[in-house]
Amino acid sequence: MSLTSRQLEILSFIQEWIRERGFPPSHGDLAEHFRFNRNAAREHLLALARKGEIELSANDARGIRLLKDSAPRQFELPLFGNIAAGAPITAPENAQEWLRIDPDLFRPRADFLHRVDGDSMIEAGILKGDLVGIHHQAEARNGDIIAACLLDRRTGEESITLKRYRRRGSEVSLLPENPRYEPLVIDLKRDADEQELPGFRIAGIMVGLFRPGAPG
Amino acid sequence: MSLTSRQLEILSFIQEWIRERGFPPSHGDLAEHFRFNRNAAREHLLALARKGEIELSANDARGIRLLKDSAPRQFELPLFGNIAAGAPITAPENAQEWLRIDPDLFRPRADFLHRVDGDSMIEAGILKGDLVGIHHQAEARNGDIIAACLLDRRTGEESITLKRYRRRGSEVSLLPENPRYEPLVIDLKRDADEQELPGFRIAGIMVGLFRPGAPG
DNA sequence: TCGATTACTGTGCAATTGCACAGTCCTGAG
DNA sequence: CTCAGGACTGTGCAATTGCACAGTAATCGA
């Protein structure tokens, strides 16, 4: 039995709440957040329990247990796809998958993983299919490997690409680590003004990688 | 600040309770189980919070969050050093460290991690300092990257090295992925007989890698 | 058109719950 | 000996909380 979109909203909120605080929300907490009646909260919980998503413990305050995916998210990282239209590309609810890798194994802490889809960074030891750990931050130093977020203004689609970062004045170069590829140069002044250029922002810096599987 | 034995009892009970039910116990639940007053429960919780074991959310029913890891070892991998004398090099009790990475993220499952200490595998995208995931198995196919276990018969020390495996008859070649290094060739027949040669066995095959930190 | 389901509002109650305050008993360090 | 801290008992209160019951409205397949 599948969930309605509203029920999925409620379930996601409960998961998020538990991850953040370590204990489930009460009926009142749900009602306050969604701005509905406490009884509406109760009925949603009953529906989620009926559909096997959660288990309710009768008469116990916050007596909610997540049945699916009950592992603590505290030690997991979200993996994001390459392209997002509309919603921000690195919003937790858009995660393709959650991998049980402790974010604190990276320095600084990783906020999400990104799958590398080409061989443009091969000389930095980053192969196609590798999952790179990214620490969310809007600025980078020269020489950092960054997850660059490029916006195609015609389609509204955002994509993430991994490149070495170099900035001179208002000119940003995104350098591949493979002689067969060309650097991408962006003029921040023009980028801010013109509509034809792809919008650019730094999604974060690379803080490590995970490779599931041996190389060829 | 360390816990008293009583406080440890209480903390263990809370961890167990959460694992079983998915939400923390109330003061009353603690009081009922330990057959003491509800206020005694509260004071124990305050003590645990003071000592940094838990975090309490004021006025929230069951507002307890565990701060230190209660993550099951199930989702962790041991990291082994390079050299072991005497005891088998990959015995869990000799682990340098346990890292929270789900062994099942690798295919096949990883049994331990090994830190790469040179650049002999650089062309396979494996850099110095990388942690490679190894699946325990005694045999390998040609082309597999293996963790080779070499025994120095004079000192009794075992060391692990990562190489690509190739076997022709009784001749095993351990091939680096770097033109500046030479292959290591072992004759299995002579290895079994003579005392001067280093003993060789396959500790396992590489099934992935983890790199904490960005490259240069 | 009917019934089922979803998604709510509104009210009320009894039990649960966190918390405050007042005490007791014991142990170990200064 | 004193004093602090741990480990409790006991009481009381206000807020929180789960839950029951009574409705409303919209949607949707039969």
Automatic annotation (TrEMBL), chains A, B:
Chain positions of site Cleavage: 85-86
One GO-annotated biological process of the protein: DNA replication
Organism this protein belongs to: Solimonas terrae
Enzyme class: hydrolase
Homology family: Belongs to the peptidase S24 family.
UniProt xrefs under Pfam families: LexA_DNA_bind (PF01726), Peptidase_S24 (PF00717)
Record flagged with keyword Acyltransferase: no
LexA repressor DNA-binding domain span: 2-63
Subunit organization: Homodimer.
The EC number(s) this enzyme carries: 3.4.21.88
UniProt-recorded name of the protein: LexA repressor
InterPro entries: LexA, LexA-like, LexA/Signal_pep-like_sf, LexA_DNA-bd_dom, LexA_repressor, Peptidase_S24_LexA, Peptidase_S24_S26A/B/C, WH-like_DNA-bd_sf
Record carries keyword DNA-binding: yes
Keywords for this protein: Autocatalytic cleavage, DNA damage, DNA repair, DNA replication, DNA-binding, Hydrolase, Repressor, SOS response, Transcription, Transcription regulation
Catalytic activity: Hydrolysis of Ala-|-Gly bond in repressor LexA
Family annotation (NCBIfam families): lexA
Ranges where the Peptidase S24/S26A/S26B/S26C domain occurs: 78-188
Active site: 120, 163
